[in-house]
Amino acid sequence: MDEDIREAARKRIKAKRDFWGMVIIFVVITVLLNVLWLIGGYQQYYWPMWPMIGFALATVFTAFNVYGPGGRPITDEAVDREVRKLKGGD
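Above: the chain sequence. Below: its structure as tokens.
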């Protein structure tokens, strides 16, 4: 049981590190896209917004998965309650 908790903790720590790595990559790519846009003569149409919006949405969903309600550990009580439901007890 203790090893299960440690494994869950390892997964959460990895998810948090992966998220912050994703944020750093988002910032680097955003800067790179804007530099390319500026070098290209920055036309009136701001095309970097489209990949930035897509990456921002992916980052938000990742943050919600890591820090939101889905990121909380599953308790033994919740598992027992679900087992009772599957058996037709509740």
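The mean pLDDT is 86.
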